Amino acid sequence: MCECQIRYSDGAIRCTCKVDEILSLLADSRRRSVIAVLESASGNWMDRETLLDSVPTTDDDWALELAHVHLPLLEDHGLVEYDARTETIRYYECELVSSVLGLIEQTTV
Hints:
- It is built from five helices and six strands, in the order ββααβααβββα.
- It has 109 residues and is of the alpha+beta class.
- The protein has one domain (3-108): Winged helix-like DNA-binding domain superfamily/Winged helix DNA-binding domain (Arc Repressor Mutant, subunit A).
- Strands 2-1-6 form a three-stranded antiparallel β-sheet.
- It is globular.
- The chain starts with a strand and ends with a helix.
């Protein structure tokens, strides 16, 4: 069974996730955009409105899709933690995610 580690910013392991699950999450272009924006955030924190504004889309349902599809999936797999009270999202680092996103960016430029 192939697993990857999801880490806190200090390097401590938060959880592990199956490689197939990570690849499935990254199959969606909007989720890749969300993760790319979160990876670039200082301190691994971002408020929901900033994230919504940072992912280019013309879809009127983007806020609902983010809240009800993408964030829950990312949270279920340990990549993010969403605090609905403060509307903040914390991103947790995963070397596999970063590597795959980098490879996709290199091949699509």
